[in-house]
Design a protein that fits this description.
The complex is a heterodimer. In chain A, strand 1 and strand 2 form a beta hairpin. Chain A has 26 helices and two strands. By secondary structure, chain A is mainly alpha-helical. By secondary structure, chain B is mostly helical. The chains are: A mainly alpha, B mainly alpha. Chains A and B meet through strand 1, helix 6, helix 7, helix 25 and helix 26 of A and helix 5, helix 6, helix 11, helix 13 and helix 16 of B.
Chain lengths: ~650, ~500
């Protein structure tokens, strides 16, 4: 026990040191050194995380208390880390996938000037540091520090190419939309403080389990926390920043906007699972919002032609899936999907980066095609990613997706509705992913001759991470083989059991069961698998032969334009706010507020003109004279009359 | 001894500065004086932190019942430290700015520092008033002599505004004095006399004092002098005004209003907070539409100060401690912003966002330092302002027995967190990002002196953001005693 506490602080500290070295030394270090420092610190954190993972396997929870961050009156907020099963899983994902992406970046970002190369790695390390704080914090305030920290890094990395105004605007949008969620998160923290007097997980959850929160309290707190999660994890209504965030370098999209940061909302709710289990209303809201987001984003993804945009909407959609799992009380399934999604989505993004690299910056899939002939490894690994996300049996996505759908099905009384919409979304996913795959890698090349000439497989620093992630995308699901296939093979569930023990008790007391009998599950799985396979074959055939190269029309145009949600927000929020600001500045401030003040001033001026008949002078000098004489009087009193 | 030195050093060195004609000499002299003051202030926090060094009482107009009583309590420590840090920072960062009649300029700056110290230290109402004016007058001359084009009209307005406030306060002081048992201006007599007044008397006195302090902070709708004055003043003076001088109003609320008129503060606090929260949203919305950087920061400051005002009236330990630390943090951060703005204005002769852009390419150090300070200003965690805002918000929210409007105030004030992100990020984007324009193509990065000043600020930002406990401990006792004095519950029980 002691050993764990003695060393865990190194996990976030190492990337922080990497950030400082690369940030301050970016003009003096060589690219090689910057890459080694950036990747090396994260690798070291990963190794420690593996060791920590071994320590918590037995079901232990460690809390390391470092110092008092804020201690005022009765409120004490320690700077403390909590290491348990949930945080250790996230530690592995963050540092493991993070390390691969760092390695990938050393090659992908090689064209950048050394100074900016250093800046990039500094940001990346700072991100890993913040994300680690987020999942390691032992209370909501430390989580919030990491929470805003990752938002900051996301902002910095989206706007990494800061000469481009559009990118900067996308960065601002991401930060501001996240802040809307953050405000809700903050208010939830204040609410917890004012009721429970404390923000430590242990104390707050014990307080909740003792039923000391009123029903209103717990519902409001959980909803506010969830609003916070919709910002960070890109759910309705705060999801529109994520597709725009693709302005950042592609490895950043893989690390921050697919594998780790955007899953912070899932982590937060899984961490607070006991609060949510006690508030069925909030769970229902989460399930509905998650499912709606999954479906909405999937429809949009069908008509996108930018390779990264398709993946971005796919991420939004998959995050919606995770929220569906949370909302239906299948917390393990949500964490499971976070993990598998981290593998295959990071793989897909990195693969798209490899493609973009080979295409000389081109991101429009209509101008690609037939890349399988030129990029064997990228093609094979990308295909594995697509198969995994589509939920083809045997690959990781199958297991986690299946568990989510089964969990949704078990809901009473509307489980069947959730299941059908969830399955529909899965079919859409299979469709757009294979539309993407076939359009990009199959058929004939549609780019320029110049581009064709340059097509090449990427170097090892890029392909090795792809291969590792592809392997993980295949085998990652076997930690959660469902009960109906093999009894007792869901090791992830057993591993996480201590974290969700409280919730299981609550569900039991409420008489809620997430069990579906095995024969039904066989049928559900069989049906969904068959349908998905049909869609995959259909989309593969359709788009390898005749890619979707024309501009969308009719309903397709609505989808291509993302249901016009951005335009709607612009109309109902941004413009009225700017208009109000302009009105207040140009009219109200000048005419009303200052008008009254100046009116009083003029009155004084007028009186002074009358007074001038008696004495010559101006108000200013009178007032001045008066004050000066008063001062002299005091000084005289103090110094001379003593 | 310490408090007397804190006032005397800037006063004497300031007066002496009038007599030199040598700009370099007087500049060094001012810097030397301000560093000396800083050293004294730090000594007061460390080696000489024993109570006996921190008070001084001597006779002064004893026939009137007034004495020269100065004392460093926790709040005084923090605010004097802020003042003591602010002036060296200002002098270092404006080292390359040149002023005509530099001797007068630096003399007046030091005199205003003496006045500020006095305001933060005075434990006698009349003395407080005296220093209040002493701090104001040099600033008036600084603006009117060294300001921008519209300086005469603007400083006139500023002066009348604050002077009206001072007069209202003077009336209030005299009234409470007249009702004190022992006919004394001492703070203890004021606490006794004020609390003994009836609700009606307290009410109108409350508004006299509140308006006086509200003008200084400023609180909507008494704020219109502020953006104009910040815009027109020489930046060094704007730093004094916005970084330190606005804290006079907050100190007034905490030390001279809450405990003196507890019943009225209890019953009218919500009204005052309502004004402040209106002003926060109002100012934030206007800030979004500003094209002039100075005005943008001026309006954002109204929003930040408004939050502190609400926190004071929530009469709650968390909120009050938040205000204490935030008074310091706000001063540090806003001075940092002004330093960069001054740098930009000096180089390009403009403060218009629409005329700038792309500075990050050739002036990365300036960009990084500015971004850190600006993000601290919008309370990003692990920076100083987060601690203050977090405590204030949780105090405002959790103070359910003082105001029933806690949720409303929290949510409305919370909206300003979002609005602050909007205008701050837009400002950063328009100044530093994008491509360079003709004007900014040959930008010079920060020089050593500015780098030093900004570096100190950044260190303070992280220090206070990661380990705020050191400051919170300093102000702990005074917060408790203020809250005890202004607690109306025992009185209601009677």
């Amino acid at each position: 026990m002691k050993n764990v506490l003695n060393i865990v602080y190194l996990i976030p500290l190492l990337p922080l040191i990497g950030f400082l070295i690369n940030g301050l030394g970016r003009k003096h270090l060589s690219k090689g050194l910057i890459g080694i420092i950036g990747s090396g610190t994260v690798l070291a954190s990963f190794l420690i995380s593996v060791w920590v993972f071994m320590q918590v396997k037995g079901g232990n929870t460690y809390v390391a208390d470092y110092f008092n961050f804020i201690n005022v009156g009765a409120l004490s907020i320690p700077f403390a880390f909590q290491i348990d099963q949930l945080s250790s899983i996230f530690l592995l994902i963050i540092t493991g996938v993070g390390f691969l992406i760092h390695v990938y970046s050393t090659s992908y970002m090689h064209e950048e000037k050394t100074e900016h190369f250093g800046r990039y790695f500094a940001y990346l390390n700072l991100f890993v540091f913040s994300m680690l704080l987020l999942v390691m914090g032992a209370n909501y305030v430390i989580m919030f520090i990491g929470w805003e920290g990752v938002g900051l890094c996301s902002y910095l990395l989206i706007g990494y190419w800061f000469k481009n105004t559009e990118y900067n605007k996308a960065a601002n949008k991401a930060f501001i939309m996240n802040r809307i969620g953050d405000l809700a998160f903050l208010i939830a923290i204040f609410w917890i403080i004012s009721k429970a007097g404390n923000v430590n997980y242990g104390d707050v959850f014990a307080f909740a389990q003792g039923n000391k929160f009123t029903a209103t309290d717990i519902t409001t707190i959980t909803i506010l926390l969830f609003i916070g999660a919709t910002g960070k994890s890109a759910q309705i209504p705060l999801y529109t920043w994520l597709p725009d965030a693709m302005a950042g370098p592609t490895p950043v999209s893989a690390l921050i906007h697919a594998a780790t940061m955007v899953t912070a909302g899932i982590y937060m709710i899984a961490r607070s699972n006991i609060l949510y289990s006690l508030s069925p209303v909030t769970l229902n809201i989460i399930a509905i919002v998650g499912l709606a987001t999954a479906l909405l984003a999937a429809t949009i993804a069908m008509k996108q032609n930018d390779i990264k945009k398709v993946l971005a909407y796919s991420t939004v959609s998959q995050l919606g899936y995770m929220f569906l799992a949370l909302g239906t009380g299948s917390y393990v399934a949500a964490v499971f999907h976070v993990m598998t999604h981290a593998f295959f989505k990071a793989l897909l993004f990195l693969g798209s980066g490899s493609v973009i690299h080979a295409m000389g910056g081109q991101q429009d899939i209509r101008k690609m095609g037939g890349l399988n002939k030129y990029m064997k490894i990228t093609n094979a690994t990308f295909l594995i990613g697509c198969l995994a996300i589509a939920g083809i049996p045997g690959l990781s996505g199958f297991f986690s997706k299946d568990e989510i759908l089964a969990g949704a099905f078990s809901q009473k009384p509307f489980g069947i509705v959730l299941y059908i919409i969830g399955l529909g979304t899965a079919l859409l996913t299979a469709f757009y992913m294979f539309r993407l795959y076939a359009t990009t890698f199959r058929g004939n090349f549609r780019g320029t001759h110049d581009q064709e000439h340059h097509l090449h497989e990427s170097p090892a620093a890029i392909t090795i991470p792809l291969i590792v992630l592809a392997i993980l995308s295949i085998i990652g699901g076997y930690v959660g083989v469902p009960e109906f296939i093999l009894h007792g093979a869901h090791s992830l569930k057993d591993f996480l059991a201590p974290v969700f023990a409280g919730s299981y008790q609550v569900f039991e007391a409420q008489g809620i069961s997430h069990e579906v009998d095995h024969s039904t599950e066989w049928i559900l799985t069989g049906v969904s698998t068959a349908l998905i396979l049909i869609v995959v074959v259909f989309a593969w055939n359709k788009f390898s032969k005749k890619p979707d190269t024309e501009d969308a029309a009719g309903f397709g145009k609505v989808l291509a334009n993302k249901w016009y949600v951005d335009e709607l927000y612009e109309k109902i929020i941004v413009r009225p706010m700017n208009g109000l600001g302009t009105f207040l500045n140009n009219v109200f401030e000048k005419s009303v507020v200052d008008g009254i003040v100046n009116g009083v001033g003029r009155l004084v001026n007028y009186s002074s003109r009358q007074l001038r008949l008696l004495q010559s002078g101006q108000v200013g000098s009178y007032v001045l004279l008066m004050v000066v004489s008063m001062l002299l009087f005091f000084v005289f009193q103090f110094f001379l009359r003593k | 001894m310490i408090p007397v030195l804190l006032i005397a050093i800037p006063l004497v060195t300031g007066l002496a500065a009038f007599f030199s004609r040598n700009e370099k000499l007087v500049r060094s002299w001012a810097l030397f004086s301000s560093i000396l003051t800083l050293a004294i202030s730090i000594l007061g926090l460390t080696i000489f932190s024993d109570a006996k060094y921190l008070e001084h009482h001597s006779a002064w107009m004893s026939t009137l019942g007034s004495s020269f009583s100065v004392k460093l309590d926790g709040m005084g420590q923090i605010l004097c430290l802020l003042t003591a840090i602010a002036f060296p920072l200002i002098f270092i960062s404006t080292w390359h700015s040149s002023y005509k009649k530099a001797n007068n300029f630096f003399a007046l700056m030091l005199l205003s520092q003496a006045g500020l110290m006095g305001v933060f230290l005075a434990m006698d109402a009349l003395l407080f008033y005296f220093f209040w004016e002493l701090a104001l007058i040099p600033v008036y001359f600084l603006c009117s002599q060294w300001g921008g084009e519209k300086r005469i009209a603007v400083t006139f307005k500023f002066f009348i505004y604050t002077f009206v406030g001072s007069l209202l306060m003077l009336i209030g002081i005299l009234y409470v004095y007249a009702h004190s048992q022992d006919h004394s201006f001492s703070i203890e007599s004021f606490y006794k006399a004020g609390a003994a007044l009836g609700h009606k008397e307290q009410t109108w006195l409350f508004w006299l004092f509140f308006v006086a302090f509200a003008i200084k902070m400023p609180i909507f709708p008494f704020h219109t002098w502020q953006p104009d004055t910040y815009e027109q003043s020489p930046t060094a003076t704007t730093m004094v005004l916005s970084g330190v001088m606005v804290k006079m109003g907050l100190l007034g609320l905490i030390r001279w209003l809450l405990p003196v008129l507890p019943v009225a503060a209890y019953s009218w606090g919500n009204m005052a907070s309502g004004m402040a929260v209106t002003g926060m949203i109002y100012a934030s919305l206007i800030a979004i539409r500003q094209n002039d950087i100075k005005r943008l920061v001026a309006y954002s400051s109204i929003a930040h100060i408004g939050l502190m005002c609400i926190a004071v009236f929530s009469e709650n330990k968390l909120a009050l401690q938040g205000v204490m630390i935030q008074m310091f943090n706000h001063g540090i951060n806003i001075i940092g912003l002004w330093i960069v703005i001054e740098l930009i204005e000096r180089q390009f002769g403009t403060r218009k966002l629409s005329e700038l852009g792309g500075l990050a390419q050739k002036a990365p150090a300036m960009a990084i330092l500015f971004v850190i300070i600006a993000l601290a200003n919008i309370a990003l965690p692990l920076t100083n302002a987060f601690v203050g805002e977090f405590l204030m918000f949780s105090g405002i929210f959790g103070s359910n027995d003082i105001t029933e409007y806690n949720i409303l105030f929290t949510v409305l004030a919370g909206l300003c967190i979002i609005l602050a992100a909007i205008y701050t990020l837009n400002m950063i984007r328009k100044i530093f990002y994008g491509d360079t324009v003709a004007l900014t193509a040959n930008v010079q990065d920060v020089k050593l002196s500015e780098k030093l000043a900004l570096g100190i600020i950044v260190v303070l930002i992280f220090w206070m953001g990661v380990y705020p406990q050191a400051v919170l401990n300093i102000t702990n006792d005074i917060s408790d005693s203020i809250l005890k004095l202004s607690d109306v519950h025992p009185m209601l029980k009677k």
